[in-house]
Amino acid sequence: MAETQATELDGPRFGPATGGEADALVVMLHGLGADGNDLIGIAPVWAREMGSVAFASPNAPYPCDMAPFGRQWFSLQSRDPADMLAGIRGAAPMLNAFLDAELARLGLGADKLALVGFSQGTMMSLYTALRRPAPVAGIVGYSGALIAGDLPDDPVTAKPPVLLVHGTADEVVPFGAMEAAQTGLTAAGVAVESIARPGLGHGIDEVGLGAGAAFLRRVLGV
After folding, report:
1. Nearest 5°: CA angle at 42, between 186 and 171?
2. Could you list the active site residues?
3. CATH topology classification for 13-220
4. Distance of CA 197 to CAs 166, 205, 211, 221, Å?
5. 83/190 Cα distance (integer angstroms)
6. Cβ atoms of 194 and 140 closer than 8 Å
7. Which stretches make up the Phospholipase/carboxylesterase/thioesterase domain (predicted)?
8. pLDDT single digits (tens) 78-106
9. What is d(CA 113, CA 28) in angstroms, rounded to the nearest whole number?
10. What is the pLDDT of residues 194-222, one digit of tens each?
């Protein structure tokens, strides 16, 4: 299904909680049928230990075509990997433009940017960040999947460290997607850490939040 009515990305922001200039930026990418408000609520929790960090959670560019509300980065009417990859490729330039604009606004370099994705947002984060001109500091991917690895005509050009967190009882994106992503990323030369959450469905729990915060503090140096 062709995507239409795309707009320049925007969405809720938070911080820095210290009130000063930002030392780093975390951009949070929501899942299918949600919007930027879905993840920005995590920012005040993480800001307790990362007060100098700015957070942004852009709304995906398209209205969700599987629900009467919410947004999507690309259509999931077809789960064919080729169709999903085409959708990701279509949305990636808009995401890159948003990332570049936020870095410029805050006066930060790519090494002070981290991406956090949930579900479809993880798919976007992994694809886009691994192909930016300059590597970001890191990627946290919750309950997601790697849609494309190192493609001959679309190669991985940046290799930031990645943390993957996935519930073993995920009913939306199968838990096996985490192992497949780790295998694909490792083959592409990307350093990957993974955490399985026993019994967790399609969501983020306290352990996952804590692991994400620790990873972000480490890679961003805050």
Report:
1. 60
2. 119, 170, 202
3. Rossmann fold (3.40.50)
4. 6, 8, 11, 26
5. 25
6. no
7. 21-218
8. 888 889 999 999 999 999 999 999 999 99
9. 11
10. 999 999 999 999 999 999 999 999 999 99
